[in-house]
Each structure stands twice: as C-alpha cells, then as structure tokens.
Design goal:
Elements lengths: L17 H24 L2 H15 L4 E5 L5 H9 L4 E6 L2 H13 L6 E5 L12 E7 L8 H11 E12 L7 H21 L4 H11 L4 H9 L3 E8 L4 E7 L2
Parallel strand pairs: 1-2, 1-4, 2-3, 4-5
Antiparallel strand pairs: 5-7, 6-7
Length: 247
C-alpha cells in the first residue's frame, strides 16, 4: 500500500525524482520558511507543537531523532523542554539546515542538538538507536511513505515512540470551502511573493489533499511494523497528531 502524495511533486514536468525535487524546493524557500509557517497557520503551529511535545515528553526520551527537522524549530523546542535529552535532527536541505544551525547556536544548544544532512528513506543510524522519533510537516514529502515509516521503525528502540504532526484536510462541510480557498488561492499568491518560488506553495495544498489521513495514515504505520497507533485532529481538522510505538 502506497500513498497518493507520493505522486505529487513540487515541480511538475521535472524529470528528477521526488526526493531531489523536495530538496531543491526547500533550498529555494529556506529564507522565507519560518515567516511563511507563522503566516500560513496564523501562529497556530506553535500551539500544535506544544500539544505534540506532550506526547514526546510522556516517553521520557534520552535520544531523540527529529526527521525533516528543517530550520530546527521542533528540535529547539524539545531541547528547551527536555534538557537531559540529546536530539539529532536530519533533513535533505542544506539551505534549511544552515538556518537551523544558526538558530541552534543562537539558542546556546549546540551540545544538545546535532543537525546533519540525511535521507529519511535511508537513515544513517544503527537499529534501535532512538527512544523517540518526531516528524513535523514532513511525511507528505516522503517519496515512499511506507518505506520511511519502516526506516523509522528500524531505528526506534523497543517501546520507542513515534510522534508525527501533519497538516490535514478539515472534515466540516462549513469549514471546507474557506479552507480550500485559503490554501489554493491565498497561500500560493503570498508564497510566490515572499519566497519567489512559483511552485512551492501550490505544491503545499496539493500534497496535503493527497497524503494519507486519519485511519489511512495509521494503517501505513501499522504496515511498517508499528503498533498502538492513534491520531488526534486539531483546529477543526487542519492539523493532525499521530502517535505509534515499536513493541
């Protein structure tokens, strides 16, 4: 079982594979990424992150892997709330990691957070390396989502926890039309103005609409060998937190 989002690429007509296109897209939008995150979500992404971090803290992890760490916002937030944890953040984009390293240094968290370039489909870590893995707004960009979950299951320790935050489509018939207009009309225009990337913020709503959601997402996690899966929809369904364990 695959995922429809795998067939949605940032740059239509581009002969490169999705992984290469995603890397190029995030290199392109890296300088505007933090601003656009706040603008697009009206700052709600911070509230969503706090809720997700309560799931992380419940595991009392010592070694954490943050997949698709981007500019390291999630890694920094976890480090501040869990000062005894060591966090490794990985991302495809050197542009995003460069900004992330500056933010980590500014926060004085160099000893607690290590950022490195890596592919989520080929994690450069031994089996059973981490107590907890987080992914924020990244799984819809995976070229092969099931393979990504299998890799994360491989490097999780026994009883380790996976916490995924992902944007999703609201289920309310009242909210849906406004959401569709905002994501398909407003965000792409603002994104082009701010980031100068013509396609990146059109790809965003397309990938959200296509990615597995709710039970379809937890089914992929279970197929990858994870268990005790659950999901919680936030803010009328525009964001969903997924959790799973390796038993």
């Amino acid at each position: 079982m695959g995922d429809a989002a795998e067939r949605i690429n940032p740059y239509s007509g581009d002969s490169r594979d999705k992984t290469s296109q995603v890397e190029a897209m995030f290199d392109s939008i890296a300088p505007a990424y933090d601003f656009m995150n706040t603008a697009m979500s009206f700052g709600l992404h911070r509230r969503w992150l706090r809720k997700a971090l309560t799931e992380v803290e419940a595991a009392a992890p010592v070694d954490i892997l943050d997949v698709a760490t981007g500019t390291a916002d999630v890694a920094i937030a976890m480090a501040r709330r869990q000062p005894l944890a060591h966090i490794t953040g990985i991302d495809l984009s050197d542009g995003m990691l460069e900004i992330g390293r500056k933010k980590v240094a500014k926060a004085g968290l160099d000893r607690q957070i290590a950022l490195r370039r890596a592919d989520c489909l080929h994690l450069p870590f031994a089996d059973d390396s981490f107590d907890c893995i987080t992914v924020a707004y990244g799984v819809r960009n995976f070229e092969h989502l099931l393979d990504g979950y299998r890799e994360m299951a491989r490097v999780l320790r026994s009883n380790g926890r996976l916490v995924v935050i992902e944007l999703s489509t609201p289920t309310s018939p009242i909210v849906k039309p406004f959401y569709k207009f905002y994501t398909r009309c407003v965000i792409p225009v603002v994104g082009r103005m701010v980031s100068k990337d013509v396609r990146a913020y059109s790809y965003l709503p397309e990938s959200i609409a296509a990615v597995a959601q709710g039970k379809a997402m937890t089914a992929l996690m279970e197929q990858a060998g994870l268990s005790d899966t659950a999901f919680r929809r936030l803010t009328m369904g525009v964001c969903t937190i997924y959790t799973a364990f390796k038993r």
